[in-house]
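Entry:
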Amino acid sequence: MIWQVANRTLADVIEVEPELRIYRDTGIALTERGHVRPEAGRFAEFLASAEGERIFVKWGWMRA
C-alpha cells in the first residue's frame, strides 16, 4: 500500500486478509557517530513524535 499512496494512478490496492499481510519495519538506531551528534538524536525523537507519525501515516505506514 505504501507504494500505491505515491502512485495512485499506476496501481489499485487489493485488500487481503490480515493474516496474509506482510508488514515492513522502519526501525532506526543511532550509530556510534550518531550518538555524539545531537541532531541525530533529535531526528530520532522527531520520528517518534506525533508530527513524525502523521508523516508516516500520510504515506501509508502504521504503528504496530
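The CA atoms of residues 14 and 25 lie 21 Å apart.
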